[in-house]
């Protein structure tokens, strides 16, 4: 991660440029359980997930009270499955998902300890390797019809920092999602869960967090979301 401080129109600004990389390796085996005794092997596979996400964030201090923030990020996630248990067919497969996400917001300092904020952002959530599993009618490997869940969220709120040892956060949010991941079962595969994409969903609500700090050693917090 790199931080660059500059001036734009005579006002201070900051740019943060960086990237995240993650690697997950799951060597998974499954056996029948015969009253506590290991039975026949039913699954033997290596699941690997690589993710890479470069991003840039910009912060601009318009004046002493108002600040604007924005950011953009591109995520690439690659799934790879190597099947070593071929009794039910070769399930080996690979799949790559990618998406561009962004955020735009503002922070208004009403008083020294009171801030109002607004934010609009997009996000996506990939299925897991387990959720990618194909149902028997779909063939082997990953489910080719399963896509990432995508959403756009709008949020406004207030933050009050350490007024008489109390911190208060209030927020209102509206989230619209599409291709949300939902589970289903099949009579032909009892005990197994499969996943598909829904059409659209909407969420609207508010959340609050109150924190009380009577001493430097004690902090008490109460939160509620509707």
Structure description:
It is a single chain. 0% of the residues lie in helices and 73% in strands. The strands form two sheets. Strands 1-2-3-4-5-6-7-8-11-12 form a ten-stranded antiparallel beta sheet, with no helix packed on it. Strands 9-10 form a two-stranded antiparallel sheet. The chain has 226 residues and is mainly beta.
Layout of helices and strands:
Elements: E1 2-8, E2 11-34, E3 37-61, E4 66-83, E5 93-111, E6 114-125, E7 149-163, E8 166-178, E9 181-184, E10 194-197, E11 200-215, E12 218-225
Antiparallel strand pairs: 1-2, 2-3, 3-4, 4-5, 5-6, 6-7, 7-8, 8-11, 9-10, 11-12
Residues in β-strands, percent: over 45%
Give the topology string: H per helix, E per strand. EEEEEEEEEEEE
**How is the largest sheet built, in terms of strand order?**
1-2-3-4-5-6-7-8-11-12
Task: Classify the helix fraction into a percent range.
Answer: under 10%
The helix count comes to 0
Q: Sheet with the most strands?
A: 10 strands, antiparallel
Q: Flag low-confidence runs.
A: none
Amino- and carboxy-terminal Cα gap: 36 Å
Computed over alpha carbons, the radius of gyration is 24 Å
How many β-strand stretches?
12
Overall average pLDDT: 91
Derived structural class:
mainly beta
The coarse overall form would be: elongated
């Amino acid at each position: 991660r790199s931080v660059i401080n500059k001036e734009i129109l005579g006002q201070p600004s900051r740019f943060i440029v960086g990237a995240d990389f993650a690697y997950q390796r799951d060597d998974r085996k499954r056996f029948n359980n015969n009253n506590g005794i290991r039975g026949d092997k039913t699954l033997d596979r290596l699941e690997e997930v690589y993710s890479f996400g470069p991003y840039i964030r910009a912060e601009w201090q318009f004046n002493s009270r108002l600040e604007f923030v924005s950011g953009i990020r591109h995520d690439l996630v690659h799934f790879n499955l190597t099947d070593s248990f071929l009794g039910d067919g070769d399930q080996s497969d690979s799949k790559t998902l990618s998406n561009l996400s962004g955020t735009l917001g503002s922070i208004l300092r009403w008083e020294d300890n009171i801030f109002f904020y607004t934010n609009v952002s997009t996000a996506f959530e990939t299925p897991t390797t387990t959720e990618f599993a194909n149902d028997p009618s779909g063939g082997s490997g990953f489910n080719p019809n399963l896509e990432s869940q995508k959403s756009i969220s709008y949020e406004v709120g207030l933050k009050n920092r350490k007024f008489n040892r109390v911190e208060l956060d209030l927020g209102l949010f509206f989230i619209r999602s599409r291709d949300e991941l939902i589970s289903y079962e099949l009579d032909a595969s009892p005990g197994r869960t499969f996943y598909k994409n829904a059409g659209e969903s909407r969420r609207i609500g508010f959340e609050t967090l109150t924190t009380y700090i009577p001493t430097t050693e004690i902090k008490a917090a109460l939160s509620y979301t509707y």
